[in-house]
Design a protein that fits this description.
Layout: H1 16-26, H2 40-44, H3 48-57, H4 70-73, H5 106-164, H6 171-200, H7 202-208, H8 210-231, H9 236-259, E1 278-280, H10 286-294, H11 315-325, E2 334-339, E3 346-352, E4 364-368, H12 378-389, E5 394-397, H13 419-429, E6 438-443, H14 445-457, E7 465-469, H15 482-487, H16 489-502, H17 506-512, H18 515-522, H19 527-539, H20 544-551, H21 566-570, E8 587-592, H22 607-611, E9 618-623, H23 637-640, H24 643-663
Parallel strand pairs: 4-5, 4-6, 6-7, 7-8, 8-9
Antiparallel strand pairs: 1-9, 2-3, 3-5
């Protein structure tokens, strides 16, 4: 059972690592939890310059708690507070008061399992249908047209023949005819549904407009009707009913989307971006103007196919395909731990050095990964591999409790916490070279946290620049992003529940949530529902809008929301723009308007006004296409991986570095 410990070892005159090394020699390494182990052979391979940099960091190679009363702790791989459910770590027997589902019956358990299994499966299935709709619809239309044309001359004589010899048709011929009609009926329905998707889906309409889907739906419906009337006997009425049903559903979806007005948190059936792509910056800030001049245009232009971008049809495919096919090379990391200044926790920092050692002139990249991620994430690892080859050192901060890192108390990860970023970057700041910059990079959830950190801490940040990739500045807009919640968030929610809530911190969630709250959490179908049913109550937020406000760089401000008139906008002084006006270092927001996970609405509805807030240190690079942490290139996306996205980050950082050197 855990006892209270001092943050620092009482023997102040002895270095902490010396204490650890002394204890470490008396223990078998296999008996130590992973966060208390040090591979000295790996550390000894570092070049002298990298070793000198690590010494400047002055950070332990093990979790700080391993240095205090270590012998008492080593038997519990994942430390848990004493009070937590009165759990026995050796027998895994738990208090019945917390494990209430033992008395809920098999029916309730089955329902919970179905909630955890069906939404991700349904979302995945629907995503694949939407992904291939651009292929299915024209292919089916072509097949139907070929069938109608090739059979038109034969159908009349065949109909007459069928009437004359109907009595002689045997059962086998009748069964074959039924199978043939069924195949064409199913093909017709599939083609109409695929056409309807292109007519009503946000991603397709944003990419191709309404006409593409309208023409395909009209053609497949007419051909299906013609085929049914002229050739079908058994499936004639079913086909006509299917045509009417698909047309009615499509018309309904089109009508409600066309009459939906843009609102602050509305749920339009069609949510096509109303802001324009491009590079937004303040011309009043000379540093940012110079950064834009130094930033090569080809490095910040996501040119359409065949000039660069992949021909993948929508934001869904530009998001999903790279994650399915891309594979980053292996990257070796060296881990140190940064102590929190607000509690007794610590976060891991995985460091990657160039082969020839650490450079004190190249930018150091401080990287924040995505939800459920870590330094192992493919796109993070690819970024690190590319930057290390260029001579830069990369530091990936592991969010507390993620990627198998321990949390000793109840303060586990949530998206509104930025103090860990401040503390970790402070240690790295102390080891910077004279003409070196520390550049923050955030992906997805990491981008949200980075944006919020730069806005909250203002002039007190320890970073020299920042770039947020596929994050969001106003997360309140995600509360009603139902397409994202239905199609993409179920998979993320399933991983979050399994790996974060149940596998690691189940006891803590059970103790802080009521029976009803925990059961609802287990049955969450999206990340938004996980936030509403678990994260908000666990961490003491008033409601989900309070949580999303605290997580957002824009904060409580309404200055960038939809429906703001020009008069209202011009009358708002800077102090009404929210904390985002506090950004005091060059900060670029990279976002694709077809991002299916983090809506374009999270960028605010007036990009130019946003970049002009405060001292004008914000820059926005908005692309028409790219998806979520995607931006694939060429016919074979695997060949280039996340090259465009990751090179855009480094080229922006290099431009900031050069501009700052010029100012000196």
């Amino acid at each position: 059972r855990r006892t209270t410990h001092n943050r620092y070892h009482p023997i102040n005159n002895i270095p902490l690592l010396t204490i650890f090394n002394t204890i470490h020699k008396t223990m078998a390494s296999d008996d130590l939890p992973s966060y208390c182990r040090v591979d000295e052979d790996q550390w000894n391979t570092l070049p002298a310059s990298a070793t000198a940099f690590v010494e400047l960091l002055d950070l332990p190679k093990v979790h700080p708690r391993c240095l205090d009363d270590f012998v008492e702790r080593f038997s519990n791989p994942i430390p848990i507070p004493d009070e937590e459910m009165h759990m026995n770590m050796h027998t895994h027997m738990h208090a019945d008061d917390n494990f209430y589902e033992r008395t809920d019956g098999i029916g309730s358990r089955i329902v919970t399992i179905l909630y955890q299994i069906l939404p991700p499966l349904m979302a995945m299935g629907e995503l694949w249908i939407r992904l291939f709709a651009c292929v299915i619809a024209p292919l089916v239309a072509t097949m139907l047209l070929s069938k109608v044309l090739s059979s038109s001359s034969k159908s009349k004589s065949k109909d007459v023949e069928n009437v004359n010899v109907n009595e002689n048709v045997n059962d086998k011929d009748d069964a074959n005819a039924r199978k043939t009609e069924r195949r064409w009926f199913m093909l017709s329905v599939l083609g109409m549904l695929a056409s309807a998707v292109q007519l009503t889906d946000t991603m397709y309409v944003q990419e191709y407009g309404r006409w593409n889907g309208s023409i395909l739906l009209a053609v497949t419906s007419l051909l299906s009707t013609r085929l049914a009337v002229s050739q079908f006997q058994i499936y004639k009425s079913k086909t006509i009913v299917a045509v009417i049903a698909v047309l009615s559903l499509s018309g309904y979806l089109v009508s409600i989307s066309e009459r939906s007005e843009s609102s602050v948190y509305g749920d339009p059936a069609l949510d096509v971006a109303t802001i324009q792509s491009g590079l937004y910056l303040s011309t009043n800030n000379t540093l940012m103007t110079r950064v834009a001049e130094l930033w090569p245009e080809e490095e910040r232009t996501y040119a359409p196919y065949p000039l660069g971008a992949s021909p993948l049809p929508t934001g869904d495919s530009r998001t999903g395909i790279p994650f399915l096919v891309n594979a980053a090379p292996h990257q070796e990391y060296h881990r140190v731990w940064a102590q929190s200044s607000v509690d007794d926790e610590a976060v891991a920092i995985d460091m990657a050095f160039p082969n020839d050692g650490h450079s004190d002139t190249k930018p150091i990249y401080f990287i924040l990964h995505g939800l459920n991620g870590g330094s192992h994430e493919e796109y993070v690892r690819e970024f690190v591999v590319r930057r290390v080859k260029e001579g830069s050192t990369c530091m990936v901060m592991i969010a507390r409790g993620l990627a198998d890192t321990p949390v000793f108390g109840f303060d586990v990860f949530h998206g509104a916490r930025v103090t860990d970023v401040h503390d970790a970057s402070r240690y790295i700041r102390n080891a910077l070279g004279q003409n070196q910059i520390l550049a923050g990079v955030g992906y997805s959830m990491g981008a949200i946290i980075l944006s919020n950190y730069l806005a909250r801490y203002g002039e007190d940040v320890h970073l020299d620049s920042g770039m947020a990739v596929s994050g969001g500045l106003d997360l309140r807009e995600m509360y009603n992003s139902y397409r994202s919640q239905r199609l993409w968030q179920p998979m993320l929610a399933q991983t979050l529940l399994e790996d974060f809530v149940l596998e690691k911190f189940e006891g803590r969630f059970r103790q802080r949530l009521t029976k009803e709250q925990f059961l609802a959490l287990l049955r969450s179908k999206s990340v938004s529902e996980v936030d509403v049913r678990g994260i908000v109550s666990y961490n003491g937020f008033r409601d989900v809008m309070h949580y999303y406000t605290e997580m957002s760089a824009i904060g409580e401000s309404t200055a960038f929301q939809a429906g703001q008139s020009e008069i209202e906008q011009s009358s708002n002084p800077d102090h009404n723009y929210g904390r985002i006006a506090n950004v005091s270092v060059p900060f670029c927001v990279l976002h694709a308007l077809d991002d299916p996970l983090t809506s374009w609405r999270t960028m605010g509805h007036n990009p130019q006004k946003l970049v002009n807030t405060g001292s004008g240190y914000i820059m926005m690079l908005l692309t028409d296409a790219g998806g979520h942490v995607g931006w694939p290139l060429g016919l074979n996306p695997r060949k280039e991986g996340w090259k465009w996205m990751n090179n855009a980050v480094s080229s922006f950082t290099n431009s900031v570095h050069l501009a700052k050197l010029e100012q000196k």
